[in-house]
Amino acid sequence: MLTLALASVRLRWASFVGSFVALACGVALMATSILVIAATVDVPDQGRQRFSEAPVLVTADLNVDFKPSTDGDVQPTPVPAQPGLPAGLIAAVAATGRTVEDRTFYAQLPDGPRDQVGRAWSSAALGGYRLTAGAAPAADDQVVIGGGRPEQVGQRVRYVTAGGVHSATVSGVTEAEPFEHAVFFTDAQAARYCPAVGALAAFGPADAVRRAVDAAGGASVARVLTGTERGQADPHHTEVSARLDAVQTPLGLSAAVSGGTAVFVVGGTFALSIAQRRRELALLRLIGATRRQLRTLVNREALVVGVLASAAGCALGAAGAAPAGHWLVDHDLVPAEFTVPVTWWGLLVAGTIGLLTAITGVVFSSVKAGLISPGEALSEADAERTSRLALAFRWVSGLLVLGGGIAALVLTARSWPDTAANVADSLALLLAIVAGCVLLAAVLAGPAIRLLTALPGLVARLRGRAAEDGGGIVWATARQSSLSAFRRTAATTTPVVLIIAFAGCLLGSIDTINRSQVTEVRHQLSASDLVVTPAGTPGLSAAVTERVRSVPGVQALVITPTALLAVDPTGQALVSFRAATADPTALAEVDRLPVVAGSLADLGPDSIVLSRTWPGSPAVGGRVSVRLADGTPRDLRVAALLGTGAEAVQAWVTGPNAVTGGVGGPALAGRIDLRLLPGTDRAQATAALRTAVDGLGARLTTPEEVWSAATDSTERDSWNALLMILGLAICYAAITLANSLVMTVTDRRQELSLLRLAGATKGQVLRTVTLETLMCVAAGTLLGVLGTAISVGGSWAALTNLVGPTPAVIPWTVMAALAATCAVIALTAAVLPAALTLRDRDGQAILRGAAGAA
Question: Greatest CA span in the chain, whole angstroms?
């Protein structure tokens, strides 16, 4: 049977081109995604780093022990705010040999980048810094600028720390280093700005250092790093690792979507191929082939096509790996040194998935092939017959998947609305809606076309004419052709539904989530008159907060971020939650938090305000057990519950319960919301506030500008998500759309000849093909929009239940552009072959073509 399958593929290659192209594209996309994901697992070699010259590095790593609710081992969990290395441990390690204490804190020059930091000069040698001009700082009012200009030596400069504004004389400058932007101080001055020691470089024997650390607390307070592990302590290494991790999720989704799309597409193209070969397969049955042999033949053909397509797809995927890496670098999603090596195992995985996809996609088609009866070989009718079993399968499977998705959306909106606030968590629901729409596309295409073409018939009836005369003979012919040619209509409609529904569901949900976050910010700032935000700095220093608070007639709400540790909903891990600290009175009067229960006035030293999505479903008046950012346990009373999303601040505490310092020095405020007191002149207050924040890395803005900035940020995130997740899948489906239409050219040759024989001109035939194609694309677009409305509606209902009234966003512009693209591709793939078929066909040729149908 394998020999027959090989001969069948070789002799009737045109029938398998569609499946080959579809599967090759799917494997190519999966191979590229897998290769890029594999490249993001390891951080590229960064060359020289912050601690390259330290043979052994001891870093602060305070952990708290947590025992899961079920039987399990105790899990050490690092605290978000590391307090620094204990003095006893530093002394113990110092006894093994020379050590260098590293303190890193916020210190930024007026023209310095946002990530500029301050460090002690003694730690500069750990990163290989070399002076290019001047000398090391000899006094507390001297600094060395990393990457500075020689002419800066001797100049007086201002710099900002968490404590305020300072000035110093530039004693020297060093060459620029790619891993950080630093300002170096004397060791004594650095210790004043940041008392906590975050890392300790040890030059003694590594084994002796480990024994000293173990004796002083061991892995519960510190880590010992050697060799390549030292890069883990470099913030630049951590930042690069986080960026690479962020890329893995959308690429993984893209690979998964490509695989899922391939199953639909390969199954559809094989079904179309079998429909075109129905008489041939019936002849095999007529000469003695059993149903099992036909099924085996189709499966073997799929295996042959799968092997060839997987090989071609792997070659294309390997060729596309480097351009994919360049695209990620150009969009600043990965560092400039990122490369994508081609690995044999990545191609093997993609090829194996391709084979499994081919075999899986053809299962239903092989069953249909086995049901062909020998008598069909003698049939003279060329009318298309639709299997009732196939229709029943499409209806049942489609309704089950779509109904299950809708039920899950309703349940999520009522019981777990916070799930809808995260795209990754709700992706399965979105894909269920898309899959349901795709499964139902073939059976709903006819009703959709009837609905879209009902207007001309209705107008004709109102004028007393037959409905068929409403749009003219070309319109009626195109409409009837699209309704009777079930397989061709399904092959055209299904990819369109996939493109429109997938783009609309995913992007619409992302935009709706982003808009809900903007709505939260807008509602929170609805009572504020002005806002102070960072301007090119990571936060607001103490000098900014002090000066703003000193402006008369203004009530200031200073929001400082922190973190809390709590048990996750499963009870299996201790996780970190976003929190903030603020003055309770100002919090209640300046901002408008979405309080759903309790009162902000009850927030105090022994209480907490939580989001209602907090694990354990807390109630007002109840008590929750948390750990502060440094691991200190607290048992606090719930003062109020907020209707905030998963991406917003999850908890508010007062100063005594907020840890805002540690290894990086004192924390910076994130924002200051301002309310003008009654009788305060707005113009005078605004001028005073601008003067207060001038030169301190802060900006005075209005709430409207904050909303606009949040909107711009979310739109950029949505666009990146669209490009990374949708781009490949949409290109794949578009190729499939064109491919399916081209596969029907042979079948249409006889149909078009009959139209010409009936008296239609070439122009009328081409207009018929054009209208029929547009009807199929319009039907697919309508079904895609319906799926989008269901998905976005579910997200909107959940988010409304979570944060209150928020707009639902349907990406009409993107869907319209995609629909237009589908129309152009479909018209090109349908009209151009039809025009070539009709070219130079005289009367005899038309008769011969028509005779082929007899």
Answer: 105
Q: Which residue has the tokens 């629901």?
A: 429
Q: How far apart are the first and last CA of the chain?
A: 32
* CA triple 648-651-655, angle to 5 deg: 125
Q: Judge contact between 56 and 202, C-beta under 8 A.
A: yes
For the chain, helix (H) and strand (E) counts, in that order, are 24, 23
Residue 117: Cβ-neighbour burial (10 angstroms; 0-12, 13-18, 19+): buried
Residue type, 86: P
Q: Is the pTM of this model over 0.85?
A: no
Beta strand residue intervals within 29-141, DSSP E? 56-60, 63-66, 75-78, 99-102, 104-108, 117-120, 131-134
Q: Find the helix or strand (DSSP H, E) in which 496 lies.
A: helix 486-524
Count CB neighbours of 332 within 10 A.
10
Whole-number Cα distances in Å, 25 to 271, 312, 350: 18, 9, 11
Which two tokens mark 325?
A: 């890496």
List Cα–Cα distances, 310 to 21, 301, 363, 530, in angstroms: 10, 14, 18, 60
How far is 228 from 13, CA to CA, in rounded Å? 54
| Long-range contacts at 285-294 (CB < 8 A, ≥ 24 apart) | 285/372, 285/373, 285/374, 285/377, 286/374, 286/377, 286/378, 291/370, 291/371, 292/370, 293/1, 294/366, 294/369, 294/370, 294/372
- Measuring CA to CA, which residue among 94, 85, 83, 146 is closest to residue 120? 146
* Cβ neighbours for 432, distance < 8 A, ≥ 6 positions apart: 401, 402, 404, 405, 408
Q: Judge contact between 144 and 131, C-beta under 8 A.
A: yes
DSSP character string of 198-248: -EEEE-S-HHHHHHHHHHTTGGGTEEEEEGGGGGGG-HHHHHHHHHHHHHH
Q: Is residue 603 a contact partner of residue 562, using CB atoms and an 8 Å limit?
A: no
576 CB burial (10 A radius; 0-12, 13-18, 19+): middle
Dihedral (CA of 480, 486, 491, 497) sign: positive
Q: Helix 363-370 and helix 388-415: axis angle, to 10°?
A: 150
- Give CA–CA dist 78/89, Å, rounded: 18
For residues 323 and 670, give the distance between their C-alpha atoms in angstroms, rounded to a whole number. 39
Residues near 396 by Cβ (< 8 Å), separated by ≥ 6? none
Judge whether 90 and 164 are in contact, CB under 8 Å.
Answer: no
Strand partners, 578: 563
Residue 332 Rama label (left phi>0; alpha psi -120 to 50; beta): left
Is residue 253 within 8 Å of residue 427, measured between CB atoms?
yes
Residue closest to 237 by CA, chosen among 80, 81, 49: 49
**Could you list the mean pLDDT of each consecutive 10-residue stretch along the chain, which spans 854 residues?**
65 66 80 85 72 90 78 78 89 92 92 90 91 93 93 93 91 89 94 91 92 86 86 77 75 69 67 70 76 79 84 89 84 78 88 80 68 62 59 85 88 76 72 88 89 76 63 80 80 85 85 80 83 90 91 92 87 86 90 87 91 85 90 91 73 87 83 91 92 89 77 52 59 65 64 76 86 91 93 87 81 89 84 76 53 48
C-alpha–C-alpha distance, residues 91 and 644, integer Å: 46
Nearest-angstrom CA–CA distance, 675 and 525:
10
Helices assigned H by DSSP within 331-422: 344-361, 363-370, 388-415
| Side-chain half-sphere exposure of 319, counting CA atoms within 13 A | 9
Instruction: State both tokens at 580.
Output: 């903030």
Q: Which tokens belong to 356?
A: 């499994």
Please answer whether residues 174 and 124 qualify as being in contact, where contact means their C-beta atoms are separated by less than 8 angstroms.
yes
Q: Give the residue among 728, 494, 724, 818 at the shortest CA–CA distance from 25.
A: 728
* Residues in CB range of 206: below 8 A, 6 or more apart: 55, 56, 224, 226
Cα(719)–Cα(506) distance, rounded to whole angstroms? 11
